[in-house]
Amino acid sequence: MLPMDPSEEDPTYPATVLKADEWNSRVIFQLSDVDVDSPNAKLREYSKAMMLRDITWAEHLQLNGCVMVRLRGPKNDNLSEIIKKRTKGHWFIQVPITNPELATFEHRKDATEAEIAKAQKVDPWSWWNSLRFATNHDEKVKVVLELNDSDRPSRETVRRWLGEPIEAVIIPSSLFVLNRSNYYVLQKEWQIIIGHFISMRAKIIISTNPTDKAISQYADYARKLIKDNTDAHNLERYENMLETPLQPLFDNLDTHTYEIFEIDPVKYKLYQDAIQQALLDRVSDEEAKTKLTVIMVLGGGRGPLARAAFNAAEITKRKVRVYIIEKNPSAIRTLSNMVKTLWSNKDVHIFSKDMRDFAPPELADILVSELLGSFGDNELSPECLDGALKLLKDDGISIPCKSTSYINPIMSALVHNNVCQAPAATAFNCGYVVLLKNVYDIDEPKALFEFKHPNRDKVVDNTRYKELSFKVQKDCVIHGIGGYFDTVLYKDIILSINPLTHTQGMFSWFPMFFPTQPHTVLTGDTISIKFWRRVDPDKVWYEWQLSAPIEGERHNVDGAGYNMRL
Hints:
The protein is an alpha/beta fold. Helices cover 28% and strands 27% of the residues. Strand 5, helix 7 (155-161) and strand 6 (166-172) form a beta-alpha-beta unit.
């Protein structure tokens, strides 16, 4: 970081100190610590002139760089206007994680309990939140969170900040302590707190005196913290990014999509376990050599479910006949090659058909499908499996046999900003698939809709409606609704992307996100959400609405922004 005035004697420095690209890539300009919203008119005007001078100099040196300013309190009207008028680069808003006034009480003997209690109720997050709304949730405005040694934040305070656009965390040198080896380290509690922010891709800034001889130790320790807490994985590029949900019933998937599904190390092993258990339950050891089990794979793709069926049959030593029904003609070519090269000695038959139109040569003992989307039923598994009911014997088994969707209110400024980049007409009327990373779960997910298979109801109705309520644990902003599901494949064999029960190691499905307009909610508030699943002859769609603590707009009415085509 570079202050605007390098010294009192010489308040200027030449632009030639660094090359142009170095000004852009290596420098954050720390604006003068002035109060542009001071109640004192003269001080306010002086402060504005100072800040505008700093900004002009920063914009001269940087094509698209960064300036940082300290948030001083709850009133920031003038600051927000200055931010909105600056069009180049990013604003890093330096926010204390707890009220900085608390630090002053360590040196005051006259502080009363009432004063201390009042100061403890001051939440600097609310300063940031007011500025965020005043700048219209501008994506160029990010948070630099400043830690302090006078008051360690609560777990819920840390969790809430994880849903904000954290650019960096400032660690004051006063947080470091000498260990037995005479090396500066952080206490375990601070390591955990900072580790959470590092896992959210936040950078580290060490705040200390330039003459501090331990700077190199601080830097080494920070590098170790980053190495130990960076959440590295192959799907990083998808974090917080919006994706349109697949519609495999209407569209044919490409081989790239099939391949992503197939490399999941967990899902197909659990499918294999489910088929294996179903075979053991249907065919006794005495019948193993004589009784044939007919398995129909609905939506064969490039063969992973058929492979799971053959593996299960081999392990259990049960006889199976496998029918693979697949409507994608390109996938049929791959399946046909597999039959010739891998399964030539298997009792396997391929049909290029929509499962709803397929007339089987015989009925199935077991139907196996993976028609589940990130919200369970959003790839139309109820409609598909209801249409395929005619393929199953009266005592037949469906794998999966049940799916349940879940929702919860969430705060994620980054995901909200990405929604705002979508076409305005549909941005807030779509359900998105998102690898939710920078997110604060306002409350735990609750069960929404349930579908059972096979569904032998005389009147089949796949429309649904439910209103769910959630409790706010900490002042925050609701940006939308997280969507998840779990499914019972067979008996106690379950796949889940519900954060509370997520199947370890499984990545086939990212959560869904249903956006709402941002609303500030307060500790103790009840958030109520209405959710609909609606059906007409051509499509299925969801509608959602925030109904408390305020009544929001009803999103995606009549499926105008997003629907699943039948």
